[in-house]
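Appendix B, record 7
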Amino acid sequence: MMLKKTFLKFYLFILPFSACQKNESSVPPRDVQVQTIEDNEALVTYLQTHFYNYHDFENDPDNHKIEISLDSLTEKNSDKIALWDQVVTKFVDTEDSDQNIVEHKLYYLIIKKGLGMMPSSVDSTFVSYKGSLLNGDVFDDRDYPIWFDLVNVVRGFRESLPEFNEGNFTINEDGTFDFDNYGKGLIFMPSALGYYSSANSNIPAYSPLIFSVNLHRVNHSDHDRDGVLSIKEDINGDGNPLNDDTDGDGLPNMNDFDDDGDGIPTFNELDKDKDGIPDDTDNNGTPDYLDAEVS
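Structure tokens (predicted):
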């Protein structure tokens, strides 16, 4: 897809009613363990009985104008390769209401990898996409890309986008710009990684979701502007900076301007000698900005 606009500005912009965002309207939740099994069975059935237009991409590999289309495997196209034989499975853990770990299967398919940077799960991404239900009903379709902070989107979207790479762009003489060579693919998520018990007029509660996505640009985020990229505030190294809270004040480090709670902003403790390396004054292996004993 070639996209044009009359100006180029990379900032966080999230539409308030976008389908990728969380929905607050809900019904009483079902048991997540049971629902996860049901959702996975529905997703597996869909993947085994549908295919995408992979021949179009094989026949014209440099054409990013090609749109992804999905269709059922029937007698007339029984020679097509099922999605089930092409997708990658990613396991995502969540906690249920009793704090038990529940494992979910998220499926994705990279059709075009992209040439540029990959986002982390807490970066901002400039994406166009189409969201649909397993019955083919489209609930959201964004031909022109918008910015999403991946922290604020549904979990399945946040876990999948880091598997893709951004593309490149050129600015034309008339001020318009063109995108090319960007990541393109499909995401298939269970309801617990989407909206689960939330519902609106377009998305019933407990709906597994399909997203066709194009990742155009990536901005690495520093949410608290303390000089440490948000993904670098993943202290325990589990890939999720949202559960790292060094000073135990209820704010994850990525949103806390004083990570160790010593009263000195992280920005002022991070690299006082300006050598590009976080300071560790007492050489105990803990950077000063995470060490409350150093101020």
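Remarks on this record: The helical segments are 32-49, 54-59, 155-160, 266-270. Confidence is low (pLDDT under 50) at residues 1-17.
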